[in-house]
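Support reply, case 0932

Customer input (verbatim):
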Amino acid sequence: MKIVTLLNNTGEGFPIESKRLREEPSVELRIHPFTSEQDIIRACQDAYIVGLSDARITKKVIDSLHECRLIIRYGVGVDNIDLDAARARDIFVCNAPSYGTIDVAEHAFGLIITLSRQTKEYDERLRSGNWAVRDDFPTFRLSGKTLGLVGFGRIARSVCAKAVAFGMHVLVYDPFIKKESVNSINVESSELNRLFEQSDIVSLHLPLSTTTEHFVDSNLLRRMKRNAIIINTSRGKLIDMEALVDCLVNERIAGAGLDVFPEEPFAANHPLLKMEHTVLTPHIAWFSHESIIALHEEVTDDMIRVLRNEAPINRVI
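Our regenerated output:
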């Protein structure tokens, strides 16, 4: 019997996994809530496959896995899994890189439009009875503006296509992408400092790692134009939040659209909550009816491959 253990605290029933795994011989699906590392160890020690979203799979957890062949995350980032420990045990680690590409790209571009048109501020003013046009921070058209994309994976490429359709010029920084594969009409490879200096909007599309934590620091933020905005739908710790707050308070940059934060949820008295020209959403860029179905199908596909002793497609290691 091969046991598939899903670590989950939401109470959902995983109908897609239940249906598809029932069709596989000698497979048992278990769904376990957890509150501690010890809970995770108890739940997973005899699992052939471990599925998770926000659980932390530490070295201690991995060392306790007696039967495990695959650890798979319901999502893109795998910074909550000790990859070195999994590699040492020859355990596959997979993610789900494709399910929310469209959704995150649409959300990122939605934040861009909301900030460029001041949609939130005008909505709030209208609801309080104020119909006046405000000229101290005018809205601006996107056509002709420059969008800087930091990272150029699936999501960034989707954002790029939308920006080009809006008539924007796009600068791209990604040291892992060849310039020839980036440079085209309205899309140009750029050095990092130049991107921050010349972009009207900067959108982050990087994974979180020890080398990308606080990737956007005070130095880069202060290179931005005073009327520029920054968008982050990737990982909250990519930005030095103290530096960002300082730049917003002192009007070193004009605004920020954030779906991710270093701490989630953050404190109720966080200064971002009282700032104009910021749009904050609770880590839901990935979320839609369609993306939920796609996520469960994408994860289950690789589970079944491993259960059948085939190589998974979405390998991280």
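We compared this against your earlier run and they match. Two observations from our side: The two ends are 25 Å apart (CA to CA). The longest strand covers residues 2-7. Please reopen the case if you see a mismatch on your end.
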